[in-house]
Amino acid sequence: METQYTAGLLIPAVAGLTQIFHPFKIPQRFMPVISIAIGIGLVFLVGLVEPIRLNIMAGIVIGLSASGLYDVVKKTVAGK
Q: Which of 58, 60, 61, 68 is the most buried (most CB within 10 A)?
């Protein structure tokens, strides 16, 4: 149960940390890759799950979820 809460808190954290890279004029198509990398890094930092392959998988899921969260908020604010 604790893992679910931690993963839920990491998603907005990854979305926020990904915003750090926007001023560097990185093409938008690379933002999901950056989000995944940050997600994997945070999962290893927090030690979310035990085996390494599950940490990597959890980081990918969290990174992609953060990318989706950013896209939804962006479209909602823009009114599209």
A: 58
What does the pLDDT look like over 10-59, one tens digit per residue? 988 998 999 898 899 888 888 889 999 999 999 999 887 778 898 899 89
Domain hosting residue 68, numbered range? 35-74
How many helices (H) does the chain have, and how many strands (E)? 3, 0
pTM: 0.82
- CA gap 76, 55 in Å, rounded: 31
Number of domains in the chain: 1
Q: Tell me, yes or no, whether 1 lies in a domain.
A: no
> Rounded to whole angstroms, what are the CA distances from 65 to 10, 25, 40?
10, 22, 12
* Residue 46 resides in a domain: yes
Asked whether residue 29 is domain-assigned, the answer is: no
